[in-house]
Every structure is written in structure tokens, then in C-alpha cells.
Amino acid sequence: MSRSRINGNFMDKTFSIVANILLRIIPTTSGAKEAFTYYRDGMSAQSEGNYAEALQNYYEAMRLEIDPYDRSYILYNIGLIHTRNGEHRKALEFYFRALERNPFLPQAFNNMAVICHYRGEEAIRQGDSEIAEAWFDQAAEYWNQAIALTPGNYIEAYNWLKMSRRKESH
């Protein structure tokens, strides 16, 4: 039985019903439909904290999905799981891969910036201010890109950029 059929969350059920209707009425290949089913099941598992199951579904969706735009969201969600699990190097890799396919994912830039900022804070705690500055500069680059894509979002990041004098003017 598909994961979405056993999920008890109202929003997940609603999403699943709408998704199933769309899969029936929108002309698409059976591979794309199957890929979307795995993607949907991966999102459901991820929302429940079942990250290993979510990854299995996402990898299966990646095997089937050929559209670069759709693949970017699968890669992004894989990055989210690695971020959640503290696997920052892997997370950054998947965010980069998502952005290669879709350079208009401000949330990927934001998450990359958050990881870099965290790494900068770690470097400060370890007494390495030079490494910290490099991480903070990288965080600033990613936050500036996220903000350029979605002005008005990421207010805390915007304020940090201004206070740290790293805000790029656009």
C-alpha cells in the first residue's frame, strides 16, 4: 500500500487526493507518474521524520524522473534530510545539484547560507577567526543570491548582511 494511503494527516490526505486527481487528468508518461508517486511518498515520510524511507523514495523518484526542474526539487529535499541529519557536506552537494538544474531555488541558497553560517560559528568557537570569516563570506554570498531571487524574504539574513557589511546592493 502506498504511504500516502496510510498517512493520517489531513493535509497530507488532501494533498494526496489532489495529486491523484492531477495524475489521472494531466497527460504525462507513466514514468513521470511513477516518479511523482515516489516523490509524494518521500515527502510524506519526510514530514513524519522517517528519513531513511524518504531517501529511498526520493532516490527511486530520481531514477525515474527525467525533467530537470522536477529533479531539482527531489535533490533539494534530499539536501534537507542531510541537513537535518547534520551531514552538511552531503547537504551542500545536493543543494548544488538542485541549483544546477534550477537556479531559481532561493530556499536552496538560504539553506546553504545557514550551513555556512553555522560552520563560521563553529570556527569561532574553535578560535579560528580566519576560517570563520571565510565561512561567513560564503554564507553572505548565498544569502545575497536568495534575497536577490525573493526580495523581502529572509529578513533575519538581510539584517545580518547589513550589520556585517556584507549586503550586496542590487
Automatic annotation (TrEMBL):
Cell compartment(s), UniProt: Cellular thylakoid membrane; Plastid membrane
SUPFAM superfamilies xrefs: TPR-like
Each TPR repeat, start to end: 35-68, 35-68, 72-105, 72-105, 120-153
Main localization, broad class: membrane
Superkingdom assignment: Eukaryota
Membrane-topology descriptor: Peripheral membrane protein
Known function: Seems to be required for the assembly of the photosystem I complex.
This protein's name: Photosystem I assembly protein Ycf3
Organism of provenance: Drosera indica
The encoding gene: ycf3
